[in-house]
Amino acid sequence: MKIGRRKLTTQNIILFILALLLMVGGLTYYTIYRTVAKSVSHMYEPLDRDFKSQNVVNKHEPISILLLGVDERPGDKGRTDSMIVLTVNPITKKSTMVSIPRDTSVFMQSKNTNIKINSAYTYKGIEGSVKTVEQFLNIPIHYYIKVNMEGFKDIVDAIGGITVNNEFPFTLEGVYIPKGKQHIDGKVALKYARMRKEDPRGDLGRQQRQREIINQIIYEGTKLNSLKNYQGILAALEDNIQTNLTMDKMIDIQNSYKEAVKNIKQLEIKGEDKRINNLWYHVVTDETRNQLSKKLRKQLNLKT
């Protein structure tokens, strides 16, 4: 994957590409299809298991997607700033979106010790993050989409901004965001997605705003007028997204799963913040984790 112009963030922007394919027809459709296919080929980065055909999902079966917002800087491999598991069931036409707090204490098999879940990426990259989330939630992760946090402002600007409803006013890094419903650009959206210290709910509040942004990006991205800048959007995506979704699978998702994506239930992972060995962790009880796992396994039509 190339890391170029600027870095992009967050998560379900790939659905914009799918919506793009749906909205155009004839020769225009073919022209855009070729452009999108070329961009997707640059984004494609399979997992080791993909080469062994261990990650095949048949059409119309439920799928899970791990969405990773990674904070990368020069000379630093980075950590996952946000982790969201999206499960989509085309039969029930329902989806779930689960935010995993980045300080969540998890056991990482390859390290044989407990770590903060955002460090799995630092140790073992995408492969490590996927395996650690699978073990933590006891579900398979079929696909992943990795994006870079900084560049997400480029996507928001490319689709003409998004509308959010801020619950309380705050200032982050010199950017003031008032209370209430407002249309914001990419620079403000990035601050809106990152603030947590002034939020009485801490990281849970930040996760809620990130999910709000995802939904708004999908909403704005599926409007017909967003097609005017599809080339600029694809350029930002190509530089900043890494995924094991193929073009064929993206089209399949758009055709078979689009109704389920319209009905997203948001779930939270509640736990207790504890100081362990001079570090703060978000500790989730086995009971809470098992209850969440059962919900997700049911959503994926797996035995509970």
From TrEMBL:
Keyword Transmembrane helix included in the entry's annotation: yes
Entry's transmembrane regions: 12-33
Keywords: Membrane, Signal-anchor, Transmembrane, Transmembrane helix
Domain Cell envelope-related transcriptional attenuator: from-to ranges: 79-219
Source organism superkingdom: Bacteria
Pfam families recorded: LytR_cpsA_psr
NCBIfam families cross-referenced by the UniProt entry: lytR_cpsA_psr (TIGR00350)
Similarity comment: Belongs to the LytR/CpsA/Psr (LCP) family.
Protein name: LCP family protein
